[in-house]
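Our preliminary data section would be incomplete without showing what the modeling component actually yields. Below, a chain of 490 amino acids is followed by its predicted structure, encoded as C-alpha coordinates that our downstream tools consume directly.
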Amino acid sequence: MNNVAIHAITMDSRHVKPGDLFIAVSGLTVDGRNYIEDAIDKGAVAVLCQSPLLTQLKNSAVPIIPIPHLNRLVGHIAARFFSEPSKNMPVIGITGTSGKTSTTHFIAQIASLCHHSCGIIGTLGVGFLDKLKPPETYCTTPNAIEIQDTLAQLGNKKADMVVMEVTSHALQQHRVEGVHFNTAIFTNLTRDHLDYHKNMEEYWLAKKTLFIEFQPKFSIINVDDEQGRQLIENKDLHQENRKVFAYSTYPEATKSANPNILYITTEALILDEKGIQAQIKTPWGEGTLSCPMIGRFNLSNLLAAVTALCLQGISLNNILEVMPLIRTVPGRMMRFGGKHHLPLVIVDYAHKPDALAEVLTALRAQCRGKLWCVFGCGGDRDRGKRPLMAKNVENMSDYYIMTQDNSRTEDPTQIFNEMLAGLKYPEKAIIEWDRKKAIHQAIMQAKSEDVVLIAGKGHEEYQMIGINKNPFSDQREVQEALKEKVEWIL
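Predicted structure:
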Protein backbone atom coordinates (compact mmCIF):
# COMPACT_ATOMS: atom_id res chain seq x y z
CA MET A 1 0.00 0.00 0.00
CA ASN A 2 1.36 3.44 -0.92
CA ASN A 3 1.74 6.09 1.74
CA VAL A 4 -0.74 8.95 1.58
CA ALA A 5 -0.47 12.41 3.10
CA ILE A 6 -3.20 13.15 5.65
CA HIS A 7 -4.25 16.78 6.07
CA ALA A 8 -6.82 16.27 8.85
CA ILE A 9 -8.81 13.51 10.55
CA THR A 10 -12.51 13.36 11.35
CA MET A 11 -15.25 10.95 12.41
CA ASP A 12 -18.01 13.07 10.85
CA SER A 13 -18.46 12.54 7.12
CA ARG A 14 -20.13 15.96 6.85
CA HIS A 15 -16.84 17.60 7.80
CA VAL A 16 -14.62 15.67 5.39
CA LYS A 17 -12.46 17.76 3.08
CA PRO A 18 -10.05 16.69 0.33
CA GLY A 19 -6.98 15.08 1.84
CA ASP A 20 -8.67 13.94 5.07
CA LEU A 21 -8.61 10.63 6.88
CA PHE A 22 -12.12 9.44 7.70
CA ILE A 23 -12.49 7.24 10.80
CA ALA A 24 -15.71 5.22 10.69
CA VAL A 25 -16.84 3.81 14.02
CA SER A 26 -20.16 2.63 15.41
CA GLY A 27 -21.68 5.11 17.87
CA LEU A 28 -24.72 5.03 20.13
CA THR A 29 -27.10 6.41 17.50
CA VAL A 30 -25.08 6.66 14.26
CA ASP A 31 -22.82 4.12 12.58
CA GLY A 32 -20.04 5.89 10.71
CA ARG A 33 -19.49 2.84 8.52
CA ASN A 34 -22.67 3.75 6.67
CA TYR A 35 -21.07 7.02 5.50
CA ILE A 36 -17.79 5.77 4.06
CA GLU A 37 -18.87 6.38 0.45
CA ASP A 38 -19.99 9.91 1.34
CA ALA A 39 -16.59 10.60 2.89
CA ILE A 40 -14.76 9.29 -0.16
CA ASP A 41 -16.95 11.38 -2.46
CA LYS A 42 -15.94 14.45 -0.45
CA GLY A 43 -12.25 13.73 -0.88
CA ALA A 44 -11.18 11.41 1.94
CA VAL A 45 -7.84 9.86 0.92
CA ALA A 46 -8.00 6.99 3.42
CA VAL A 47 -10.54 5.34 5.71
CA LEU A 48 -10.06 3.53 8.98
CA CYS A 49 -13.12 1.41 9.60
CA GLN A 50 -14.28 -0.40 12.71
CA SER A 51 -14.25 -4.09 11.83
CA PRO A 52 -16.19 -5.56 10.16
CA LEU A 53 -16.85 -3.46 7.09
CA LEU A 54 -20.62 -3.41 6.59
CA THR A 55 -20.61 -3.38 2.78
CA GLN A 56 -17.88 -3.98 0.22
CA LEU A 57 -17.20 -0.86 -1.82
CA LYS A 58 -16.54 -1.51 -5.48
CA ASN A 59 -13.57 -0.10 -7.36
CA SER A 60 -12.49 2.26 -4.60
CA ALA A 61 -8.98 3.62 -5.10
CA VAL A 62 -9.05 4.85 -1.52
CA PRO A 63 -7.55 2.45 1.05
CA ILE A 64 -10.18 1.23 3.53
CA ILE A 65 -8.61 -0.49 6.51
CA PRO A 66 -10.86 -2.48 8.89
CA ILE A 67 -9.56 -2.46 12.50
CA PRO A 68 -11.04 -4.38 15.45
CA HIS A 69 -12.09 -2.22 18.44
CA LEU A 70 -11.25 0.95 16.51
CA ASN A 71 -13.36 3.06 18.88
CA ARG A 72 -10.79 2.38 21.62
CA LEU A 73 -7.92 3.46 19.40
CA VAL A 74 -9.23 6.73 17.95
CA GLY A 75 -7.82 8.82 20.79
CA HIS A 76 -4.36 7.28 20.42
CA ILE A 77 -4.44 7.79 16.64
CA ALA A 78 -5.48 11.42 17.10
CA ALA A 79 -2.84 11.96 19.79
CA ARG A 80 -0.11 10.81 17.39
CA PHE A 81 -1.54 12.95 14.56
CA PHE A 82 -1.41 16.04 16.80
CA SER A 83 2.07 15.18 18.17
CA GLU A 84 0.98 14.01 21.65
CA PRO A 85 -0.03 17.44 23.02
CA SER A 86 -0.80 16.16 26.53
CA LYS A 87 2.82 15.08 26.95
CA ASN A 88 3.96 18.67 26.52
CA MET A 89 1.87 20.31 29.27
CA PRO A 90 0.13 19.12 32.45
CA VAL A 91 -3.48 18.01 31.96
CA ILE A 92 -5.75 17.94 35.02
CA GLY A 93 -8.79 15.67 34.65
CA ILE A 94 -11.79 16.07 36.95
CA THR A 95 -14.48 13.43 37.37
CA GLY A 96 -17.41 13.02 39.76
CA THR A 97 -21.17 13.52 39.77
CA SER A 98 -21.14 17.14 40.92
CA GLY A 99 -18.53 19.88 41.12
CA LYS A 100 -16.65 19.23 37.89
CA THR A 101 -17.48 22.55 36.25
CA SER A 102 -16.99 24.65 39.39
CA THR A 103 -13.65 23.02 40.22
CA THR A 104 -12.50 23.41 36.62
CA HIS A 105 -13.26 27.12 36.62
CA PHE A 106 -11.83 27.70 40.10
CA ILE A 107 -8.55 26.16 38.94
CA ALA A 108 -8.51 28.32 35.80
CA GLN A 109 -9.44 31.50 37.69
CA ILE A 110 -6.83 31.04 40.41
CA ALA A 111 -4.15 30.08 37.88
CA SER A 112 -4.90 33.24 35.88
CA LEU A 113 -4.82 35.43 38.99
CA CYS A 114 -1.43 33.88 39.78
CA HIS A 115 -0.22 34.77 36.26
CA HIS A 116 -0.44 31.30 34.76
CA SER A 117 -2.29 30.40 31.56
CA CYS A 118 -4.83 27.59 32.00
CA GLY A 119 -6.89 26.10 29.19
CA ILE A 120 -10.37 24.65 29.79
CA ILE A 121 -12.31 21.76 28.24
CA GLY A 122 -15.75 21.36 29.76
CA THR A 123 -19.45 22.06 30.04
CA LEU A 124 -19.20 25.80 29.49
CA GLY A 125 -16.87 25.54 26.51
CA VAL A 126 -13.25 25.16 25.47
CA GLY A 127 -10.40 27.66 25.39
CA PHE A 128 -9.30 30.22 27.94
CA LEU A 129 -11.46 31.91 30.57
CA ASP A 130 -11.68 35.24 28.77
CA LYS A 131 -12.71 33.64 25.47
CA LEU A 132 -14.48 30.31 25.91
CA LYS A 133 -15.85 28.76 22.75
CA PRO A 134 -19.15 26.97 23.44
CA PRO A 135 -18.97 23.24 22.69
CA GLU A 136 -20.45 22.33 19.30
CA THR A 137 -22.24 19.36 20.82
CA TYR A 138 -24.03 18.86 24.14
CA CYS A 139 -21.17 16.71 25.44
CA THR A 140 -19.20 17.99 28.44
CA THR A 141 -16.22 15.99 27.16
CA PRO A 142 -15.79 16.26 23.34
CA ASN A 143 -15.01 13.30 21.07
CA ALA A 144 -11.54 11.81 20.97
CA ILE A 145 -10.34 13.74 17.92
CA GLU A 146 -11.74 17.07 19.16
CA ILE A 147 -9.99 16.59 22.50
CA GLN A 148 -6.57 16.05 20.92
CA ASP A 149 -7.12 18.91 18.47
CA THR A 150 -8.14 21.23 21.31
CA LEU A 151 -5.16 20.21 23.45
CA ALA A 152 -2.85 20.90 20.52
CA GLN A 153 -4.40 24.33 19.95
CA LEU A 154 -4.14 25.22 23.64
CA GLY A 155 -0.53 24.09 23.64
CA ASN A 156 0.22 26.23 20.58
CA LYS A 157 -1.28 29.17 22.46
CA LYS A 158 1.20 28.59 25.29
CA ALA A 159 -1.14 27.19 27.92
CA ASP A 160 0.83 26.35 31.06
CA MET A 161 -1.75 23.67 31.90
CA VAL A 162 -5.17 22.40 30.84
CA VAL A 163 -8.05 21.40 33.11
CA MET A 164 -10.67 19.05 31.67
CA GLU A 165 -14.04 17.75 32.85
CA VAL A 166 -14.07 13.98 32.36
CA THR A 167 -17.53 12.40 32.38
CA SER A 168 -18.43 8.76 32.92
CA HIS A 169 -19.78 8.71 29.35
CA ALA A 170 -16.43 9.92 28.00
CA LEU A 171 -14.53 7.28 29.98
CA GLN A 172 -16.83 4.43 28.98
CA GLN A 173 -16.89 5.55 25.33
CA HIS A 174 -13.06 5.86 25.21
CA ARG A 175 -13.16 9.57 24.32
CA VAL A 176 -10.17 10.44 26.52
CA GLU A 177 -7.95 7.60 25.31
CA GLY A 178 -4.58 9.03 24.33
CA VAL A 179 -4.68 11.78 26.97
CA HIS A 180 -1.79 11.67 29.44
CA PHE A 181 -3.29 12.97 32.68
CA ASN A 182 -0.77 14.54 35.01
CA THR A 183 -3.44 14.91 37.72
CA ALA A 184 -6.86 13.36 38.32
CA ILE A 185 -9.48 14.72 40.74
CA PHE A 186 -12.46 12.83 42.15
CA THR A 187 -15.18 15.11 43.56
CA ASN A 188 -18.00 12.75 44.64
CA LEU A 189 -20.40 10.07 43.49
CA THR A 190 -24.18 10.30 43.78
CA ARG A 191 -27.05 9.06 41.64
CA ASP A 192 -26.99 10.28 38.04
CA HIS A 193 -27.02 9.02 34.44
CA LEU A 194 -28.85 5.79 35.24
CA ASP A 195 -30.66 6.27 31.95
CA TYR A 196 -27.26 5.42 30.40
CA HIS A 197 -25.47 3.25 32.96
CA LYS A 198 -27.16 0.02 34.04
CA ASN A 199 -26.67 0.74 37.75
CA MET A 200 -24.58 2.70 40.23
CA GLU A 201 -21.84 0.08 40.21
CA GLU A 202 -21.33 0.46 36.46
CA TYR A 203 -21.38 4.25 36.86
CA TRP A 204 -18.72 4.05 39.58
CA LEU A 205 -16.55 1.64 37.60
CA ALA A 206 -16.53 4.11 34.71
CA LYS A 207 -15.41 6.93 37.00
CA LYS A 208 -12.64 4.83 38.56
CA THR A 209 -10.96 4.15 35.25
CA LEU A 210 -9.54 7.69 35.25
CA PHE A 211 -7.45 6.75 38.29
CA ILE A 212 -6.78 3.08 37.56
CA GLU A 213 -6.27 2.74 33.81
CA PHE A 214 -4.89 6.20 33.04
CA GLN A 215 -2.42 6.12 35.96
CA PRO A 216 -2.11 9.86 36.62
CA LYS A 217 0.99 11.02 38.47
CA PHE A 218 -1.18 12.69 41.11
CA SER A 219 -4.60 11.54 42.37
CA ILE A 220 -6.66 14.06 44.37
CA ILE A 221 -9.65 12.48 46.11
CA ASN A 222 -12.55 13.81 48.18
CA VAL A 223 -12.68 11.66 51.33
CA ASP A 224 -15.90 13.29 52.54
CA ASP A 225 -17.41 10.92 49.98
CA GLU A 226 -17.77 7.20 50.71
CA GLN A 227 -16.46 6.17 47.28
CA GLY A 228 -13.55 8.55 47.75
CA ARG A 229 -12.60 6.83 51.01
CA GLN A 230 -12.63 3.51 49.18
CA LEU A 231 -10.68 4.84 46.22
CA ILE A 232 -7.71 6.11 48.24
CA GLU A 233 -7.09 2.56 49.45
CA ASN A 234 -6.90 1.12 45.94
CA LYS A 235 -3.46 -0.42 45.54
CA ASP A 236 -3.24 0.67 41.89
CA LEU A 237 -3.04 4.30 43.04
CA HIS A 238 0.00 3.59 45.20
CA GLN A 239 2.40 2.38 42.56
CA GLU A 240 5.88 3.78 42.22
CA ASN A 241 6.02 7.40 40.97
CA ARG A 242 2.35 8.01 41.85
CA LYS A 243 1.11 10.12 44.77
CA VAL A 244 -2.31 10.28 46.44
CA PHE A 245 -3.80 13.38 48.07
CA ALA A 246 -7.01 13.31 50.11
CA TYR A 247 -9.06 16.42 50.88
CA SER A 248 -11.82 17.00 53.42
CA THR A 249 -13.86 19.96 54.64
CA TYR A 250 -13.75 18.58 58.19
CA PRO A 251 -10.88 18.86 60.70
CA GLU A 252 -11.67 15.39 62.06
CA ALA A 253 -11.43 13.72 58.64
CA THR A 254 -10.95 9.97 59.06
CA LYS A 255 -7.43 9.27 57.88
CA SER A 256 -6.17 6.13 56.23
CA ALA A 257 -3.61 3.91 57.87
CA ASN A 258 -1.57 4.30 54.68
CA PRO A 259 1.22 6.77 55.56
CA ASN A 260 1.78 7.66 51.90
CA ILE A 261 -1.55 9.52 51.60
CA LEU A 262 -1.19 13.28 52.08
CA TYR A 263 -4.14 15.25 53.50
CA ILE A 264 -5.66 18.68 52.93
CA THR A 265 -8.13 19.60 55.70
CA THR A 266 -9.85 22.62 57.24
CA GLU A 267 -10.71 23.98 60.67
CA ALA A 268 -12.24 27.14 62.16
CA LEU A 269 -14.76 27.08 59.30
CA ILE A 270 -17.23 29.96 58.83
CA LEU A 271 -19.98 29.63 56.23
CA ASP A 272 -22.32 32.59 55.89
CA GLU A 273 -23.86 34.99 53.38
CA LYS A 274 -20.46 36.64 52.88
CA GLY A 275 -18.92 33.41 51.72
CA ILE A 276 -16.35 30.97 53.10
CA GLN A 277 -13.54 31.43 55.58
CA ALA A 278 -11.43 28.58 56.92
CA GLN A 279 -7.98 27.64 58.11
CA ILE A 280 -6.54 25.04 55.80
CA LYS A 281 -3.75 22.56 56.47
CA THR A 282 -1.86 21.19 53.48
CA PRO A 283 1.44 19.44 52.70
CA TRP A 284 2.65 22.86 51.51
CA GLY A 285 1.82 24.75 54.69
CA GLU A 286 -1.16 26.36 56.40
CA GLY A 287 -3.14 29.54 55.85
CA THR A 288 -6.50 31.27 55.71
CA LEU A 289 -8.81 30.54 52.82
CA SER A 290 -11.34 33.33 52.29
CA CYS A 291 -13.62 33.68 49.27
CA PRO A 292 -17.12 34.92 48.35
CA MET A 293 -18.52 31.48 47.44
CA ILE A 294 -21.52 30.00 49.30
CA GLY A 295 -21.70 26.51 50.80
CA ARG A 296 -19.58 23.67 52.10
CA PHE A 297 -19.70 21.96 48.70
CA ASN A 298 -17.91 24.95 47.19
CA LEU A 299 -15.26 24.72 49.91
CA SER A 300 -14.76 21.11 48.84
CA ASN A 301 -14.30 22.21 45.22
CA LEU A 302 -11.86 24.90 46.30
CA LEU A 303 -9.74 22.43 48.28
CA ALA A 304 -9.44 20.27 45.16
CA ALA A 305 -8.42 23.34 43.16
CA VAL A 306 -5.83 24.42 45.75
CA THR A 307 -4.29 20.94 45.79
CA ALA A 308 -4.09 20.71 42.00
CA LEU A 309 -2.46 24.12 41.66
CA CYS A 310 0.07 23.50 44.43
CA LEU A 311 1.06 20.34 42.56
CA GLN A 312 1.69 22.50 39.49
CA GLY A 313 4.21 24.55 41.44
CA ILE A 314 2.09 27.57 42.41
CA SER A 315 2.75 28.56 46.01
CA LEU A 316 0.03 28.15 48.63
CA ASN A 317 0.55 31.74 49.77
CA ASN A 318 -0.06 33.07 46.26
CA ILE A 319 -3.18 30.95 45.88
CA LEU A 320 -4.67 32.10 49.20
CA GLU A 321 -3.78 35.71 48.43
CA VAL A 322 -5.93 35.74 45.26
CA MET A 323 -8.74 33.56 46.63
CA PRO A 324 -10.96 36.53 47.65
CA LEU A 325 -10.93 37.67 44.00
CA ILE A 326 -12.47 34.57 42.43
CA ARG A 327 -15.99 34.86 41.06
CA THR A 328 -19.02 32.62 40.77
CA VAL A 329 -18.97 30.18 37.89
CA PRO A 330 -21.73 30.95 35.34
CA GLY A 331 -24.93 29.19 36.37
CA ARG A 332 -23.55 28.04 39.72
CA MET A 333 -24.84 29.74 42.88
CA MET A 334 -25.32 33.03 41.04
CA ARG A 335 -26.80 35.77 43.25
CA PHE A 336 -29.44 38.28 42.25
CA GLY A 337 -31.39 40.74 44.37
CA GLY A 338 -30.94 40.61 48.14
CA LYS A 339 -30.97 44.38 48.54
CA HIS A 340 -33.48 47.23 48.51
CA HIS A 341 -36.35 45.13 49.91
CA LEU A 342 -35.81 42.39 47.31
CA PRO A 343 -35.44 38.70 48.15
CA LEU A 344 -32.11 37.03 47.49
CA VAL A 345 -32.47 34.87 44.36
CA ILE A 346 -29.98 32.10 43.54
CA VAL A 347 -29.68 30.50 40.11
CA ASP A 348 -27.95 27.12 40.20
CA TYR A 349 -27.50 24.17 37.86
CA ALA A 350 -28.42 21.62 40.57
CA HIS A 351 -30.43 18.96 38.76
CA LYS A 352 -29.63 15.86 40.82
CA PRO A 353 -31.07 14.87 44.23
CA ASP A 354 -27.87 15.25 46.25
CA ALA A 355 -26.75 18.44 44.51
CA LEU A 356 -30.17 19.97 45.12
CA ALA A 357 -30.00 18.98 48.80
CA GLU A 358 -26.53 20.51 49.18
CA VAL A 359 -27.63 23.82 47.69
CA LEU A 360 -30.79 23.97 49.82
CA THR A 361 -28.75 23.17 52.93
CA ALA A 362 -26.33 25.99 52.16
CA LEU A 363 -29.17 28.47 51.54
CA ARG A 364 -31.14 27.42 54.62
CA ALA A 365 -28.14 28.35 56.77
CA GLN A 366 -28.29 31.97 55.64
CA CYS A 367 -32.03 32.39 55.12
CA ARG A 368 -33.69 34.74 57.63
CA GLY A 369 -37.18 34.19 56.20
CA LYS A 370 -38.73 31.51 54.03
CA LEU A 371 -36.84 29.34 51.55
CA TRP A 372 -38.44 28.95 48.12
CA CYS A 373 -37.49 26.52 45.37
CA VAL A 374 -38.48 26.50 41.69
CA PHE A 375 -37.43 23.25 40.02
CA GLY A 376 -38.26 20.61 37.44
CA CYS A 377 -36.86 17.37 36.09
CA GLY A 378 -35.49 16.63 32.65
CA GLY A 379 -37.35 14.43 30.21
CA ASP A 380 -35.84 11.38 28.49
CA ARG A 381 -33.40 11.02 31.38
CA ASP A 382 -33.07 9.01 34.58
CA ARG A 383 -36.67 8.80 35.83
CA GLY A 384 -35.64 7.46 39.22
CA LYS A 385 -34.24 10.86 40.21
CA ARG A 386 -37.61 12.59 40.03
CA PRO A 387 -39.28 11.46 43.28
CA LEU A 388 -35.95 11.81 45.10
CA MET A 389 -35.51 15.41 43.97
CA ALA A 390 -39.09 16.26 44.95
CA LYS A 391 -38.66 14.63 48.35
CA ASN A 392 -35.52 16.67 49.07
CA VAL A 393 -37.23 19.90 48.04
CA GLU A 394 -40.28 19.16 50.18
CA ASN A 395 -38.11 18.38 53.22
CA MET A 396 -35.76 21.32 52.88
CA SER A 397 -37.77 24.27 51.59
CA ASP A 398 -40.82 26.16 52.85
CA TYR A 399 -42.47 26.76 49.48
CA TYR A 400 -41.82 25.09 46.15
CA ILE A 401 -43.08 25.39 42.62
CA MET A 402 -42.76 22.49 40.21
CA THR A 403 -42.25 23.49 36.61
CA GLN A 404 -40.77 22.25 33.35
CA ASP A 405 -37.05 21.83 32.95
CA ASN A 406 -35.99 20.36 29.58
CA SER A 407 -38.92 18.01 29.04
CA ARG A 408 -37.55 17.04 25.60
CA THR A 409 -39.79 14.47 23.92
CA GLU A 410 -41.35 13.12 27.12
CA ASP A 411 -44.90 13.96 28.21
CA PRO A 412 -44.60 16.62 30.96
CA THR A 413 -47.59 15.08 32.73
CA GLN A 414 -45.62 11.88 33.32
CA ILE A 415 -42.66 13.88 34.62
CA PHE A 416 -44.83 15.81 37.09
CA ASN A 417 -46.61 12.65 38.25
CA GLU A 418 -43.29 10.96 39.01
CA MET A 419 -42.10 14.05 40.90
CA LEU A 420 -45.34 14.17 42.90
CA ALA A 421 -44.85 10.51 43.85
CA GLY A 422 -41.91 11.57 46.02
CA LEU A 423 -43.96 14.00 48.12
CA LYS A 424 -45.49 13.24 51.50
CA TYR A 425 -48.01 16.05 51.02
CA PRO A 426 -48.50 16.39 47.24
CA GLU A 427 -51.51 18.66 47.75
CA LYS A 428 -49.14 21.39 48.98
CA ALA A 429 -47.15 21.45 45.75
CA ILE A 430 -47.59 24.41 43.42
CA ILE A 431 -47.48 23.33 39.78
CA GLU A 432 -46.84 25.82 37.00
CA TRP A 433 -45.92 24.30 33.67
CA ASP A 434 -44.62 27.58 32.23
CA ARG A 435 -41.12 28.06 33.66
CA LYS A 436 -41.15 31.82 33.11
CA LYS A 437 -44.41 32.16 35.04
CA ALA A 438 -43.08 29.91 37.82
CA ILE A 439 -39.97 32.06 38.28
CA HIS A 440 -41.96 35.28 38.29
CA GLN A 441 -44.55 33.84 40.68
CA ALA A 442 -41.95 32.80 43.26
CA ILE A 443 -40.08 36.10 43.15
CA MET A 444 -43.22 38.23 43.27
CA GLN A 445 -44.56 36.33 46.30
CA ALA A 446 -41.25 36.14 48.20
CA LYS A 447 -40.59 38.69 50.93
CA SER A 448 -37.41 40.70 51.33
CA GLU A 449 -35.99 38.34 53.99
CA ASP A 450 -36.72 35.24 51.87
CA VAL A 451 -34.36 33.28 49.63
CA VAL A 452 -35.51 31.89 46.25
CA LEU A 453 -33.61 29.08 44.53
CA ILE A 454 -34.15 28.63 40.78
CA ALA A 455 -32.67 25.19 40.20
CA GLY A 456 -31.86 22.92 37.29
CA LYS A 457 -30.75 24.94 34.27
CA GLY A 458 -28.08 27.32 35.54
CA HIS A 459 -25.98 28.49 32.60
CA GLU A 460 -28.24 27.11 29.88
CA GLU A 461 -29.57 29.57 27.33
CA TYR A 462 -32.29 27.31 26.01
CA GLN A 463 -35.18 25.04 26.97
CA MET A 464 -35.74 21.76 25.14
CA ILE A 465 -39.46 21.23 24.59
CA GLY A 466 -40.17 18.36 22.21
CA ILE A 467 -37.47 18.53 19.55
CA ASN A 468 -37.35 22.33 19.70
CA LYS A 469 -34.50 24.19 21.35
CA ASN A 470 -36.21 27.37 22.51
CA PRO A 471 -34.27 30.41 23.75
CA PHE A 472 -34.62 30.61 27.53
CA SER A 473 -32.44 31.80 30.40
CA ASP A 474 -33.18 31.45 34.12
CA GLN A 475 -30.80 34.32 34.77
CA ARG A 476 -32.58 36.64 32.36
CA GLU A 477 -36.02 35.73 33.73
CA VAL A 478 -34.83 36.35 37.30
CA GLN A 479 -33.55 39.78 36.36
CA GLU A 480 -36.84 40.60 34.61
CA ALA A 481 -38.87 39.38 37.59
CA LEU A 482 -36.80 41.43 40.06
CA LYS A 483 -37.20 44.50 37.86
CA GLU A 484 -40.95 43.87 37.82
CA LYS A 485 -40.97 43.53 41.62
CA VAL A 486 -39.10 46.81 42.06
CA GLU A 487 -41.72 48.55 39.95
CA TRP A 488 -44.47 46.85 41.98
CA ILE A 489 -42.87 47.95 45.29
CA LEU A 490 -42.53 51.53 44.10
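The chain has a mean pLDDT of 92. The first strand starts at residue 8 and ends at 10. Preliminary results of this kind motivate Aim 1 of the renewal.
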